[in-house]
Amino acid sequence: MPELPDVEGFKRVLSKNVLYKTIARVVVSDARILGKLSARTFASRLQNAKLVAARRHGKHLMANIDHGGWLTLHFGMTGALKFVQSCDDEPPFTRVRLDFASDGCLAYTNKRMIGRVGLVEDAADFIAAEKLGPDALDRRFDFDAFKTAVLGIRRDVKSVLMDQQILAGIGNIFSDEILFQARINPAERIDNLAPSELKRLFLEMREVLKTAIVRGAGSEQLVERMPKGSFLPERKKGGHCPRCRSLLKVFKVGGRTAYCCPQCQGC
Ligand SMILES: [Zn+2]
């Protein structure tokens, strides 16, 4: 499930391979991913245009179109962005493909079709319309801003981390990794955390997200690439704590499945 680090990986795929290249052809294999936007309108806006900048906010990726407006990509549960040198090597479940005049193709894949590809006029307006909170790794989103963002909230800490309107980018998987590294019970109410715990939560949030980016999030082998002591590889049925080897507890928090070490996190 693509979260902030994965989408940052997709942003790098886009930035590295396709900026300032002319889009020669737009192939929409499944128009349902465009929602109400017609495939014809979508294609006509991108045909012969260039993507000139990439921007990520939370789990959303946006690319500025030289003719005006932005291409928006959301990856839902199973989405990804891949660049292939030859369009004959189109990856499975490609829903939208941009073929470049010089070389290569950018493929938006999405097996389960949860997600969206779209066009908007303005990136900032789009972020506001989606009601997204600050990006979890935004430099301006420091500890004071984090404290302010969660002030007065009386919900379990896992749901708060995952609430895109409070802060954008974290989902079910990375919230578990962050809470494990911070040694906090996912079901603990955020307003019950000691100031030192809240600080640790913030610092681990940044550390976990940055580490995942450096280790190549967005690729299918991320789990194998995470450093020793990471929670992700054990986050499965029958998994054990990487620190104390206790059997992990699995339970629902705010309707989502949480994995947690009963010894280290007191859950
Ligand atoms: Zn443990």
From TrEMBL:
One of its GO terms (molecular function) is oxidized purine nucleobase lesion DNA N-glycosylase activity. InterPro entries: FPG_cat, FPG_N, H2TH_FPG, Ribosomal_uS13-like_H2TH. It comes from the Bacteria. GO terms for biological process: base-excision repair. It catalyses: Hydrolysis of DNA containing ring-opened 7-methylguanine residues, releasing 2,6-diamino-4-hydroxy-5-(N-methyl)formamidopyrimidine. Pfam families: Fapy_DNA_glyco, H2TH. Residues 2-115 form the Formamidopyrimidine-DNA glycosylase catalytic domain. Keywords: DNA damage, DNA repair, DNA-binding, Glycosidase, Hydrolase, Lyase, Multifunctional enzyme. Belongs to the FPG family. This is Formamidopyrimidine-DNA glycosylase catalytic domain-containing protein.
